[in-house]
């Protein structure tokens, strides 16, 4: 006769996701990002989403919202309108992983997103804990919303793009400045705005 406890335990396991076998060593593939014309391609989007075990549309929606642009899925890759660097996209994937995948109690990725009424909850099948997924705060971008071609302003250069230009962030906009280094503060004139990308020249 089957032990009632064992029977119940087996039944319970059929309703949970398969626990990770890496004993906490959860590694998301590094984003492979490159510029293609006027767009940015995340080449291994499918590999990343597969590791996260999340719906591709959900991850894509998150990235588009954070980048402030439009885009689409093409086969195994994601394509974003505008030019973005690895240093802009990689932190967003990390952010999504922390908010929507990793359990805040046990630190494991064995979680599911469950909608309870209007609230999205992250439930962990490894330790049984659950928490609401915190909503993103509405962005207030009074400066970024006022950017115009011909505008002159001071900007802080945060990092360098793959092409060697300095990069600054103003609200939702990514601003490229040629001939400068990270850490510099420079005065620039906006020469062209394309979506969330602003091109400039030093004044």
Write the layout of secondary structure elements.
Blueprint: H1 4-13, E1 33-36, E2 39-42, H2 45-52, H3 56-67, E3 71-74, E4 77-81, H4 86-100, E5 111-116, E6 119-124, E7 130-132, E8 152-156, E9 159-160, E10 166-170, E11 173-177, E12 185-194, E13 197-202
Structural notes for this entry:
The chain has 2 domains: 96 residues, Alpha-Beta Plaits (2-Layer Sandwich); 59 residues, Nucleic acid-binding proteins (OB fold (Dihydrolipoamide Acetyltransferase, E2P)), CATH 2.40.50. Strands 8-12-13-11-10-9 form a 6-stranded mixed sheet, with no helix packed on it. A 4-stranded antiparallel sheet has the order 1-2-4-3, with no helix packed on it. The protein has 4 helices and 13 strands. It is elongated. About 11% of the residues have low confidence. The relative contact order is 0.12. Helix 3 crosses helix 4. A hairpin with a 2-residue loop joins strand 12 and strand 13. It is an alpha+beta fold and 203 residues long.
């Amino acid at each position: 006769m089957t032990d009632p406890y064992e029977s119940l335990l087996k039944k319970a396991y059929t309703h949970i996701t398969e626990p990770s076998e890496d004993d906490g060593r959860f590694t998301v593939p590094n984003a492979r990002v490159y510029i293609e014309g006027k767009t940015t391609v995340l080449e291994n989007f499918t590999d990343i989403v597969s590791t996260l075990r999340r719906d591709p549309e959900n991850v894509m929606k998150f990235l588009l919202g954070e980048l402030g642009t439009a885009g689409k899925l093409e086969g195994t890759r994601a394509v974003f309108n505008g030019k973005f660097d690895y240093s802009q996209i990689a932190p967003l994937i990390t952010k999504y992983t922390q908010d929507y995948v990793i359990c805040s109690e046990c630190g494991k990725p064995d979680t599911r997103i469950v909608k309870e009424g209007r609230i999205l909850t992250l439930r962990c099948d490894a330790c049984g804990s659950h928490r609401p997924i915190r909503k993103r705060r509405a962005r207030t971008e009074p400066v970024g919303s006022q950017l115009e071609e011909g505008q002159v302003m001071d900007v802080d250069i945060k990092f360098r793009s793959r092409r060697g230009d300095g990069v600054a962030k103003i609200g939702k906009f990514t601003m490229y400045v040629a001939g400068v280094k990270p850490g510099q503060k420079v005065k620039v004139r906006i020469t062209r705005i394309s979506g969330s990308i602003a091109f400039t020249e030093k004044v």
